[in-house]
Amino acid sequence: MDRRHFMGTLAAAGAAAGAASALVARRARAAEQKPLGVALVGIGKLTQGQLLPALKKTSHCRLAALVSGHPEKARKVAAEHGLPEKNIYTYETFDRLADNPEVDIVYIVLPNAMHAEYTIRAARAGKHVYCEKPMAISPRECEEMIAACKKAKRQLGIAYRLHFEPHNLEVARIARERELGAVKVIDVAGCTMVGDPAQWRLDKKLSGGGSLVDIGIYALQAARYISGEEPTAVSARQTVTDRAKFKGIDETLLFSLSFPSGIVANGISSYAVFLNRFVVAAEGGRFGVDPALNYHGIRGFRSDNKPLAFPEIDQFATEMDDFAACVRAGKPTRVPGEEGLRDVRLIEALYQAAETGREVKVAP
Ligand code: NAD
């Protein structure tokens, strides 16, 4: 080969190598941009009414699989969402998710007593897990879920959507920065009404409790993220108006949380009324959200009449996007399993307090 040809070949090889590395970089960028695949486990009201529509609005997620015990329903929903039938699983074939590289995140949307089992199985299948609230029905289950995800080196997030809701975030900021002075009292209500007496929410084996585990948990959460502290003692008492419907689970629970700084939170959790609001009384005025936890129409207020208003977001799309972004970046989620565990421990202490009529000390 003469020198001219040799130089030409070298240049061509150099160009080819350059093109190949550009291709590798482009593929890496594309992989970074590619939405993560989400498997929804359970196709009930939340999945159908909120999560499936929200997935379409996300930037970092896409529907990759459905897990259901009802093949007809699963096929219908899959068809509506352009999901191939091969990506439908049952509770029996769930573990085969391990062989599906399209699934990155498994989102558990089942009755509360099933959260632990499916979280642990998903982690064992090598998937990241996002789990509905309450995280589980006992602190021990929560600890096992955390351990399983740690062992599998996968992230575990709990679907606390209000940690992404701008009005709630602003209330926590005003409290933290003492914009209206030091917070003294937090008044929280997390109440809703439940219809069908045959539903799993009223069956303690499946729900783990009544209004507190389902809706009051938002009030408990709010007291914690607004005070920015962990309670050291809790007290509670129960009332019931419909004894036929609420057997062995709380219809209404009134509770009080004492925080280390002296802040006190008074709460009501109930299945008897529609009421949800978080009101903060500080030295220099009051502020809060009312309604506080609805999917739409959350409204903020401040007693100094400064605005506490933000455009509405899709809370479900936002939380799923945030979790996917954390998974992709290897960054911890702001709603890890440990956060779910803290609430489940407090719920246990609150039920104990209600049962004994005594204040229960809790480790911060
Ligand atoms: P749902 O009853 O509408 O759906 C439950 C799903 O689980 C159904 O698809 C059902 O077929 C399936 N399932 C499997 N085994 C079951 C069994 N043994 N008994 C009953 N159902 C069984 O419930 P949902 O309202 O969608 O709630 C699901 C989870 O989502 C719960 O943990 C709940 O706390 C949570 N949730 C969260 C929010 C929120 O705003 N983040 C709102 C609603 C529900």
Highlighted features:
single chain; 364 residues; alpha/beta; 10 helices; 39% helix; globular; binds nicotinamide-adenine-dinucleotide
Run of helices and strands: HEHEHEEHEHEHEHHEEEEEEHHE
What is the number of E strands?
Answer: 14
Shape call:
globular
Strand order of the largest sheet: 13-12-11-7-10-9-8-14
Bin the strand percentage.
Answer: 15-25%
Helix content, binned percent: 25-40%
Our measurement of the CA-to-CA distance between the termini, rounded to an integer number of angstroms, reads 78 Å
Spans of at least 5 consecutive residues with low confidence: none
User: Number of helix segments?
Assistant: 10
Structural class: alpha/beta
As an assembly, this protein is single chain
Largest sheet: 8 strands, mixed
Mean pLDDT: 94
What is the CA-atom radius of gyration, in angstroms? 24 Å
Molecules bound to protein: nicotinamide-adenine-dinucleotide
